[in-house]
Design brief:
Layout (H helix, E strand, L loop, with lengths): L3 H21 L7 H18 L7 H14 L5 H15 L11 H13 L3 E3 L17 E3 L2 H7 L10 E6 L2 H10 L5 E4 L9 E5 L17
Parallel strand pairs: 1-2
Antiparallel strand pairs: 2-3, 3-5, 4-5
């Protein structure tokens, strides 16, 4: 089964490579408008010809819609470059991303605490709960879900939810520095009142685009 992670990396790498070839041959100009027009047409062609695995179909359709409604402001080239840089920086020589372990998650918790985040991971979150932090940035992780998501060797084998309240971009950036990609479920409403929900996946193998860090490794 083709993973979304590797297939979307394939998509953006192919798209950018095709754009460069078109520019070098003089068929497309090097400016945001021309680049968006080219990549919009390329995405539409890829959809029609079903050139990539079905797992990326929704993302291709989203890009097609963006380019049609936003024009040059869709900034497809910028999106492609950010996705390529983000994902390829975490890949090893065999195309595998970070193995998410208990040790890695613990390191992430320590980094968050050093940045003045309150980490709460000792309770079960099985219904709508309130978590008061007096304005401090907060991460809540369900203890029961965490336990079931880890195997005996301490490796993540199931998706794990992170409930957060605070500077989401800072959270995304700090996670990425540890090699962890975050996949947004909701910005605000979740099982934990006033907290958004993000999910981490084994080997960063999410099923849609991850949240992108400010600066890649």
């Amino acid at each position: 089964m083709t993973s979304f992670y590797n297939e979307i990396l394939h998509v953006v790498t192919e798209g950018l490579s095709t754009l460069v070839t078109a520019q070098e041959s003089g068929k497309t100009q090097k400016n945001p408008v021309s680049e968006t027009v080219f990549l919009s047409a390329w995405v539409t062609k890829m959809i029609k010809q079903q050139c990539f695995d079905h797992c990326v179909s929704k993302t291709l359709l989203q890009w097609q819609k963006q380019s049609r409604t936003m024009g040059k402001n869709a900034q497809l080239k910028v999106q492609f470059e950010r996705i390529k840089n983000t994902l390829s920086a975490l890949n090893d020589a065999d195309g595998h991303s970070t193995v998410i372990t208990a040790e890695l998650i613990d390191d992430f918790y320590r980094v968050l605490e050093a940045a003045d985040w309150l980490v709460t991971n000792e309770y079960e979150v099985n219904r709508k709960v309130s978590h008061h932090t007096d304005g401090q940035a907060s991460l809540v992780v369900c203890a029961a879900q965490y336990k079931s998501a880890m195997n005996e060797q301490g490796t993540l084998i199931k998706p794990l939810s992170f409930y957060i309240r605070g500077n989401a971009q800072q959270f995304i950036d700090l996670a990425y520095q540890q090699g962890i990609l975050l996949f947004k479920i909701t910005d605000y409403k979740s099982k934990v009142k006033f907290h958004g929900e993000f999910v981490i996946y084994p080997d960063n193998a999410g099923t849609h685009l991850p949240e992108l860090p400010t600066v890649t490794n």
